[in-house]
Amino acid sequence: MYFCTEITNTITWIGVNDRKTERFENYLPLPNGVTYNSYFISDEKTCVIDAVEMGSTSTFLDKVVECLAGRKLDYIVVNHVEPDHSSGLKEVIRLFPEIKIVGNIKTLGMLQAFSPDFPVENFVTVKEGDILELGIHKLTFAMVPMVHWPESMITYDLTDKILFSNDIFGSFGTLDGGIFDDQVNFEFYQNEMRRYYSNIVGKYGPQALNALKKLSGLEIRFICPSHGLMWRKDISKVISLYETWAKLEPEIEGVVIVYGSMYGNTAKMAEIIGRKLNCCGIKEIKIYDASKTDLSFIITEIWKYKGLFIGSCAHNNSVYPKIEPLLHKLENYGLKNRYIGIFGSMMWSGGGVRGIQAFADNLKGIEIVGESVEVKGTPKTEDITRLEKVAEEMAAKLISDRI
Ligand code: FEO
After folding, report:
1. pLDDT of residue 4
2. What is the CATH number of domain 5-247?
3. Whose CA is nearest to atom 3 of ligand 1?
4. Measured from the CB, is residue 227 less than 6 Å from ligand 1?
């Protein structure tokens, strides 16, 4: 046996840690890796819940074969067709050509779109509330469209009260020894889970809330997502966190200051704002240079804190190229429940501050704090006063929210 990964005496984690892939979906950095979780159910019928990404198939199939111990694999449930879960399916079908592949009607269309030679005759279509009998275990299914794709569904084991939640409750980060919430320091996974949520699912908060509503009546002993930690001790904690993120509510008091700066002037302004915020009693302040830090890390911090300053120098009468994608993402995600401050430098016609202002004016549910501070060249004494004033105003708003 690879190592002890039993969830119960009949259900085993057979996922794979991927420490090789540089970028998830080919754009999100994976400094801490990622897992593709999969689960084996041993019963009168054998069943795997979700496959893994193609590059990890060899290890995954070794585990499947080991769990089968000479039996055949009867079913694989495809909760979600995105290739991090389904691209390994081809190899599963090659090894077990008689396998029944379980999904909903949208699943089938997507599998065929990715693989024109997909064996339709092996497909078993399920809909909301259907039950798949494996023997002692009875699996039922619920549709959770757009968390993360239109065909996304979750599987619930009525016997052991296990929720196979796919992308919901998933996180980046490999499982380095511990696999359950009570076996690790959660702080690391909380950040990686928020980064997964905010960057992958973030646009679909209302749909995520609908999914949580479906779960609210269920007795859940284990949550087994398709990435990262499994949950058995503090299940209400992870559900509550997810609800906070789906509502786009900040977790704690604090401010993200993100800037784009060509010659260091906008960077200086960020430092002045940060120092003043701290002098006003704000302890959690994160300053990021958007030219260096990948946006996915900045976005997860924006999800965490209520305060946000965005700074940009002018570039071709517009926003700096490294800030532009951030604005696009936040607009696309419908950022709300935040205080936003705006600053930046210019030399002749400006454009950086003007562009951020236009972005913020378009957002519903945010509050622009104080004056948008634009400085010609480097900040002078009077500019520093203006920056400090807007920082004071941000701090006052955050502090008044404490009560
Ligand atoms: Fe983990 Fe939407 O795939």
Report:
1. 59
2. 3.60.15.10
3. 82
4. yes
